[in-house]
Design goal:
heterodimer; A: 6 helices; 49% helix; 1% strand; B: twelve-stranded antiparallel barrel; 2 helices; 46% strand; globular
């Protein structure tokens, strides 16, 4: 019993210490550079579809019958839903360096997968597309 | 004359004291779906909790393809809560996280300030605080929430004042107000979100209750009263059933919120009931004596 009380006290102390830790009001920088995005004028059809077809919607993954969550062969449907709910940005941008959660996945089981990560140029295109509310 | 007056005062005072009795079990559980209730654990009771929220039942991501969401896990949580005394409950849990941050470790403290009495004290009051730390892997992208430039960027705080009243034996209502603070936010979003919440329980039979909760963010892009940003947020709304089976409390629910913890669902609920983005979920609570 004493051990449990001790553990509880430690948890309270830890929590108190963390509560006292800094309370910040920070803001992330914009997702993409405005001037760059204006010059690129990214839309789904002019730039993004090619990237998605090569890195997501390949056989066995984000296509009909594939194991990827959602079919990304068209703008409407699962892709638009993933964009609206933020999961697309979460997996492709925010957690891109996570080998398991990040998309495209590292060490993909599918030979059709072209690469583990998007190139910097492709990431910029995707970021500009997201920043501009993913126009079709 | 003096004696008579003294006797009357004494009898009246005794009557008031004897008539006062605590109103127990305003809610059967420490949580009403996703909203913390005014209930604290009795001293030396340990509550082990498992909660699960599945994928969308309907809409573009639901239906037969995902067996109405059962093949997807929006969020999963395992947590322990412990009653240090009858008023103070501490907790610690781990959840998957449904918002932009994942792998969430959450500590909690809840203190019962006031308990409703049959006479005199009309309601119960409690304060609750949460601190969530994301254990997600760091991102190399400075515009990502997972960039974690400093440790505090992993942390989200939440505090709320809960006020509840039990009306008779069947109806309980809780109103609460609180503040959720993110140390870092995407460009243009508010660090602090103030919210109001409503939770209710209706006792239907001896073991079955109907429960509901609603959380209304009052500022920031999350609030329906403000617009902005390229993502739509929706107030979390849940309805469910609660079964009490002696030592266990079992809740089944339907909610548009994917996240389980307030530090997750208040800033990050982007699912809309009207688009079919509601899900089945359950919470199992098992209490142990220590």
């Amino acid at each position: 019993m004493k051990k449990i009380i001790l553990l509880a006290c430690c948890l309270i102390a830890l929590q108190a210490a963390l509560y006292l830790s800094s309370c910040d009001f920070d803001e992330l920088p914009p997702l993409a550079d405005a001037a760059l995005c204006d010059s690129l004028s990214v839309t789904y059809n002019n730039s993004v579809k090619k990237i998605i077809d090569e890195s997501c919607a390949y056989s066995g993954c984000h296509v009909s019958g594939g194991t990827g969550f959602g079919i990304y062969t068209d703008y409407d449907g699962d892709l638009l839903d993933a964009l609206n709910t933020g999961t697309f940005q979460k997996w492709v941008i925010d957690q891109k360096d996570d080998p398991v959660q990040g998309m495209p996945p590292n060490q993909s089981a599918y030979p059709e997968s072209l690469k583990d990560d998007l190139t910097e140029e492709e990431l910029q295109i995707i970021k500009c597309w997201l920043r501009d509310a993913y126009p079709e | 004359m003096k004696k008579s007056l003294l006797t009357i005062i004494s009898v009246t005072w005794l009557g008031i004291v004897l008539a006062q009795a605590p109103v127990y079990q305003t809610f059967k559980d420490r949580w009403v779906i996703n909203t913390p209730s005014v209930e604290t654990l009795p001293k030396r009771k340990l509550d082990f909790r498992v909660a699960h929220r599945f994928g969308d039942i309907a809409g573009k991501s639901g239906g037969w393809t995902t067996f109405y969401g059962f093949e997807n896990a929006a969020d999963v949580s395992f947590a322990f809560e412990y009653g240090l005394n009858n008023r103070l409950t501490i907790g610690f849990g781990r959840s998957k996280g449904a918002g932009q941050l994942g792998q969430l470790l959450t500590g909690s403290l809840k203190y019962s300030i006031l308990q409703q009495q049959t006479e005199g004290t009309p309601l119960s009051l409690a304060v609750v605080g949460f601190e969530t730390i994301s254990a997600s892997k760091k991102s190399s992208d400075p515009s990502s929430l997972n960039y974690f430039e400093k440790f505090s960027h992993r942390v989200v705080y939440h505090a709320a004042l809960l006020a509840a009243k039990k009306f008779g034996n069947r109806l309980s209502v809780q109103l609460s107000g609180g503040y959720t603070h993110r140390n870092v936010v995407p460009a243009g979003e508010a660090n602090g979100i103030v919210h109001a919440a409503l939770a209710t329980r209706i006792q239907v039979t001896k073991t079955l209750g109907i429960i509901g909760d609603f959380t209304l963010p009052l500022n920031g892009h999350q609030s329906p009263f403000e617009s902005g940003g390229n993502r739509s947020y929706y107030p979390p709304l849940g309805i469910g059933f609660e079964f009490e089976t002696g030592g266990h409390v079992f809740q089944v629910n339907f909610t548009n919120s994917k996240g389980i913890m307030p530090t997750d669902y208040i800033p990050y609920t982007v699912s809309n009931w009207l688009d079919g983005q509601y899900r089945f979920g359950f919470t199992i609570s098992r209490i142990f004596n220590l």
